[in-house]
Amino acid sequence: MEVSKQEEVTAVSPRKPIRVWTDGCFDSMHFGHANALRQAKALGDYLIVGVHSDAEIAKNKGPTVNNEKERYAAVAACKWVDEVVEDAPYVTQLSMLEEHNVDFCVHGDDLVSTSGGVDCYHEVKTAGRYREVHRTTGVSTTDIVRRMLESTKCHFSPLPPDPHHLRPLSQGTHKHSPYTGVSKFIATSGVLRLFSETKEAKPTDKVVYMDGAFDLFHVGHINVLKKAKEAGDFLIVGVLDDDTVNRYKGANFPIMNLYERVLSVLSCKVIN
Q1: Cα(162)–Cα(151) distance, integer angstroms
Q2: Mean of the pLDDT values across residues 103-111?
Q3: Is 214 left (phi over 0), alpha (psi -120 to 50) or beta?
Q4: Which range is most confident: 170-174, 183-187, 210-214?
């Protein structure tokens, strides 16, 4: 049977990689941000993340906790991110997608608008180049700051087992909790698997171990983990439990509970 030239080309031509864009402030980057980036990457092959500058955020939202250089570095360290575009416009523009050869833009299902009330994604939505992923409930930069200001230890109280990957506490016994710092979901083994690598160290690998609290996972943690990884080939990180951290740190530390801190560590690309 003869094969046409077109069929030959089709048979050998690789599929064009799908390039995805997402953007945001990524202030005090946490596992909720990482989960959004994980979901965005799952929709394509190459993920480009635009990060807004301090000036853009201050104009539309208010001052940030972390400065732009810290935020750029934190996003670049996330294992689902392939490229970071610094000083991305607060309103996502089609021209940015064209400039970076992007197929579509992805964002969470929460509404984001400018100081003037304009939908930040109206351009890409109108053009049909917008996709949505579920926002991770129960965590935000505002929530983290609130936890720091409160003296409650409620956020790292023992959590009951749960059969679902993500369960809002509003559906359970804590529906009317006065503690705004309580995490709204329980990270089960299913969620941990989504964030984990399945690779094991090779017999020839030099394995490095490091442990710590890794509370409010930030660029300082990322830098020290990079140095640890440079000392070998395979980096294993131990995360201390809430009671141990509290015994040494006191007050209401850790601000993030064990599951939240583990997810933040697992999202770092230098971790094996």
Answers
A1: 27
A2: 90
A3: left
A4: 210-214
User: Where does the chain show beta strands of DSSP type E?
Assistant: 19-24, 46-51, 83-86, 104-108, 130-133, 207-212, 234-239
- Structure confidence at residue 231 (pLDDT): 98
pTM of the model: 0.81
Give the span between the Cα atoms of 228 and 210, in whole angstroms: 7
Torsion (CA) 42, 219, 59, 82 in degrees, nearest 10: -30
Contacts 24+ apart (CB under 8 A), 139-143: 139/30, 139/31, 139/32, 139/183, 139/184, 139/260, 140/32, 141/25, 141/27, 141/28, 141/30, 141/65, 143/180, 143/181
In this predicted structure, the answer to whether residue 147 has a pLDDT above a threshold of 70 is yes
Query: Is the CB of residue 78 less than 8 Å from the CB of residue 113?
Result: no
**Cα separation of 241 and 251, whole Å?**
15
Read off the tokens for 92. Answer: 């996502």
Q: pLDDT (tens digit, 9 = 90+) per residue, 45-95?
A: 999 999 999 999 999 999 999 999 999 999 999 999 999 999 999 999 999
| Cα(38)–Cα(216) distance, integer angstroms | 19
88 within 8 A of 95, measured Cβ to Cβ: no
pLDDT at 181 over 80: no
Q: Which two tokens stand for residue 195?
A: 């964030």
